[in-house]
């Protein structure tokens, strides 16, 4: 008879988001349903047809990160390093742990495109002044793996490190990679995703997405599951979490905030939203199976919520397909409609919100959304009080990836 798998716990959460540059402010704004979507104000973006986004406005990288790291990294890595610090502090992991057992801590992140702002600045130097004015960090700062590398270097983590390139759904896949590393024997993994797509070059690249909303009214630009759905608006920021074996966490007295109970992923092709119904439903079934979770045990679904009519319909049907009759009764929420859809970072911020939802017994609302046109119990208007023991987080990518993650409350004794 095989031994039970070690239970994988989330012990720390760090969030840098458009609605708050700390986990506490993020949750306060999320539970209150505050929308911070607004007109894009980033320099050089004023003339572009993408008018609305979720910008992180109260983040000072110089106050959070040493100068020697700032000059060699892009904004998306600034978010990642700051969020990692918050998560490690939350998990009560002292910096001395690196000196004692450096190979016991690893890092895994996901990113959609890397550091466009840094790359654009250096290329402008090349075009305008010549090659002598291009800094040496141009070769690495833009790279989508930069956050993993810089977090591990800065904190001295020498355990298994990796980056997931799996479309927006890669955010959830990064958590699955972290869980597998812990089950293989690594003590701690710092995992997550951050993005910084609000820069001229990055925004021009995004204009190629047919699913992108170009509506200039922040209250109407991102309204999934409604008859007025017109696409999504992007966001910057993200979240990092500390993942470790539950036994390790309890030995050092760290609170277990949640369990990574089950995950599965599928692929159905770029912009094939009707086909994503089957792929997403299959991912949900796989995640439930790995978690040993019955459909009726799901207390809330954090939806992908693309905001494209065909994609929204496919997601609503996928939830019903995978959860059966429970799929039309279970509360569904999409707090990202108040901050924007941050590509790989979006499902990480959803996962952070799901853990906080379980801890506080509150399901946050879906800002700016009222007239639901799908058979979903979408939470709108204000937060809903509920006993939340198990949460399902969904994510799909524009290139066709689908991912589902089951989270259990920290006190829940289900298998992970």
From TrEMBL:
The keyword Hydrolase is annotated on this UniProt entry: no
Organism domain of life: Bacteria
Protein name per UniProt: Polyketide beta-ketoacyl synthase
Coiled coil: none
CDD domains per record: CLF (cd00832)
Assigned protein family: Belongs to the thiolase-like superfamily. Beta-ketoacyl-ACP synthases family.
Biological process, per Gene Ontology: fatty acid biosynthetic process
GO terms, molecular function: 3-oxoacyl-[acyl-carrier-protein] synthase activity
